[in-house]
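Q: I'm writing a short explainer about ATP-dependent Clp protease ATP-binding subunit for a general audience and would like to include a description of its predicted shape. Could you first generate the structure from this sequence?
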Amino acid sequence: MAIDITIPFYTFRLRLATGGALMTPLQDHRIARIQQQAAAIAEEYAEAFQKQVLNKGQLQDLLSALPKGDFLKAQISVAFPQAADQMSFPAFSLDFDYYYNLNEEGAAVWAIVPTIGLQVYIQKTELLEQQLREAITLDFARKRRLQSVQEIVSAIWYDSAELQRQEVSLKAPAPKDLEKLSKEQEDQLLPKAARLLSENLPACYEREKELGELARALKSSFQRNAIVVGPSGTGKTALVWELARRKAALKLKIEIWEATASGLIKELMRDTGWQDNLSLLCQELKGTHHVLFVRNLLDLFEVGKYEGNSISIGDYLTPYLSAGEITIIGECTTEELARIEMRSPGYLSHFQQIQLQEPSGNALNRIISQRAEEMVRGKPIQIAPDAIQESIRLNQRFSPYDGLPGRPIRFLENLLLLHQPQHTERKAAAGASAIDRTAVIRQFVEETGMPQFMVDPALPMAPKEVMQRFNNQVFGQEEAVNRITGVLATVKTALSRTGKPIASLLFVGPTGVGKTELAKQLASFMFGDTERMTRFDMSEFSTPYAVQRLTGISAAQEGLLTSAVRKNPFGLLLFDEIEKADASFFDLLLQVLSEGRLTDSQSKLVNFCSTIIIMTSNVGASNLNLNPIGWQQQLDDNSVKAHFINEVQKYFRPELFNRIDQVVPFAPLDPLTIRYVVEREIEALRKREGIRYRRMNLLISPEVYEHLAVKGYHRQYGARHLQRTLRQELLIPLARALNAEDPDDQLEVCASLEEGQVKVTAKADPLGLDLLLEEYTKIACTDHAGSLRRQVDQLREGNAFVRLLSEIDLMKQGRKRKGKAFWKDTEKANRYGQLTDMQAQVQVLWEALEQVELKFARSCLGILPYDPTWNDHLDELEQELYQQKIRLFATLKPEQNQCLMSIYGQAPSQALEFYRALFQYKGYSFTLSALWARWEARQLDIIATPLPSDISFAHILPEEKGDSLLGLRAHITGHGVLSYFSHESGKQRWSLNPDAPEDCIITADSVFAELPEGLGRRNLFTAFHPQRITTSNQFKDNYLGINREYQDLQQLLALVADELDSRFASEIQAFLL
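A: Of course. Here's the predicted structure. Afterward I'll give you a sentence or two in plain language.
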């Protein structure tokens, strides 16, 4: 069992000269309490020490908290000399009260000067005052108290210091108790199900009133549960975080644990049912300072239910809340609050409500400005005030129900994450990049897909260009396009009312006249993609039950409409054939068109203010008589439009009709328009997979176009009749013709008009095999170009190129520092020019490869005609890449650019001819010299004489009679030549003339190697084992691994050069990467 322990706890009471006192513990003078009793501090210390030390088994720390012996009080006087400047202050002395503790005879003395927070350990008692004075003097010097009179005065604020002693009771747990405590801590549910909020959280601004209300609610003697109510994004969570940050200043002895309903149910469902674990969790919260903060309180009523159990977690907590055993802080919106009251009447009576309203005006600007300053603190970037104003304007206009200031702050946070130096609009005075209004608009446009001129008031909108764009896509509907352009102009100039959809349009007219197509083009224009259009076939919502699916039938199911808008807030909603929907749908539509919002089955508010709503209708089509009786045999377009508008006004309720921004009537299509539609549909046909990816050429005669336009025209059914005609007259015959041919053949397909019928013929192209091979060539060249481009990427990312860039940067710094003097160092200036030229050449090579790769790729896709000269250009670029690698190798390793080769032998004529030809074959520069042995006065001298580079071996003659030839030497220069010939060293035998074989020794190094031992003696080549043997038609090299026949010297040169090139390229590649 636990052992009761009582230990003394000491506090200093520091009395101020002006009145009042400051309490500070002996163990830590950095902690101070004003006007607090010593007993309260001792109790708080005992609780913390028991929990954090003893309950964790750290009993040895109890010894350090238990001072031995009594403390004695004394006073010491310390003299300070006059200020160094003879003016700041005169010489003075200060008296300090201090306490010291003498444990045992001969032990160290612990001395404390509480007024300045100084503690000293002194070895000898007789040196106490001397060393204490020195410690005080050093403390003044370290804290620079003697720099001014104000600092000196701060050391004598306290009138006196009194040491007070309190007895605190502790329990030292036994080993069994420690095991039990450890297990309890491991089994605690609260740390697993929730997160303890620390003080390192973002601040909440301009919410002092609401923060005070929340703090007072938690201090209440009766109902200490609170719920923060406000729209989404107004800072409900941030308010609770601010409470956690400032709990000490608000005098709240609480720990706030943040949890969500999903996190709770995840942890509570372990081992047993959630009810048992929730009961244990409530026991952990009961009678403690723990406060559970639940984000979205409504979710507690959604989790925990299952078949046969209607009790949720929220309902289960009711007894604990009513008894005041636990404290909960919740948050929800106004709609969710009503949902909670409806589900569990009286539940909210256990909570004190703190209402959080959206800030506006200057308060909103201050909140976002302060948050922006916090976001960029310590970063080389700034957020300009006009950027903050623009983010507020855009969000208030297009997302008024998303909550302020949450949405603009999240927008700026995302922009800050994406902001890179190359996106900087301007530089701040301190050199930091700045996010300004233009950057905000650009990011908003990128997120929403809206055209920049529609968002930025500074950019004009060209109505004629807009109309031309729509007319090029939708034929024969000029008036409809004109009306839509007018609506867009109203949106552009911000003259339309906010708090509603961007625009609401009703398209009316006969079927097949382009209503849906115009809606797609409007989605592409406003939001950047036709995929931003969400279409609802209203014939599927002809019953009240089906209409409920739009907002969700139950809380567990998302609505089709609301979820679509939530996932894609900036988009176009198309309600096709709206007259077929149930009447209850129009009630939903009223709220959407009027307020721009809708609440789903989960009580979540959905914002429609960033959408365009288009409704299509064929009302009046059934009673439209296009061929009336009378003098006028056909209705004109204006009469048709007036008919549909009149029918729409009769069909829809006035309150719905009046909320529609614009009714757009569509006229029937005329024959000329149908002709344009035929051309567009056939162009779309050519892009279909069955034609685009098949090896074929499709030729359609002009007569077929005319035939399809005439036969496909129907004034009542419009373009839909044309679709049926195209399918019957062209698509089906084309499909039959293609199915009759081999899929791999190159086909020539022709559609012509014969006897009033479209006839499709297909035959294999005799050049199909050549075209197939050409296709394979294009694909292979595309892959090869991509491989070369990736090699350049690897080169630029390799160690060698990074080293080159580093050297360039260092030289640029030197050039900037030295100015014109930099160029006076000719060697360094040449080096700088060489390196920068190489950097530029690599960049040019990469761009050229990218262009060639793009050409081949576009040719494979049929976008660009193939040009065979591209192959030659690609080969040239491949060779240029190889040469660039060699130049980079030679630049960074200049010691490899010369090689000294020696050919030792009695008559190495054949080796000379081969290597001289090899030097010329590779384009290397070289000089020759002969090596002679000369005996003078019984002294052997080695003489080297220069030779012409084109000399024949027969003309190599000694300077003096008696000189004997030892061999030849070559000084070779070129890019990386030393690495190239590094594998040539060794013994060789040349037998081009079988009757006169030649043995020789080759060395290749950066310096001429020492002469081989025994050179000049007849027995040097007696026991000769060559690594290379060359006969008149056979070449064998054991080191290079070659054993091949050859025909002539040129073939032999190519054979050896290819192997040396391969080894040289591998060595360069290893160095560069």
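A: For your explainer, you could say: Residues 1058 and 1064 are 10 Å apart (CA to CA).
Q: Perfect, that's easy to follow.
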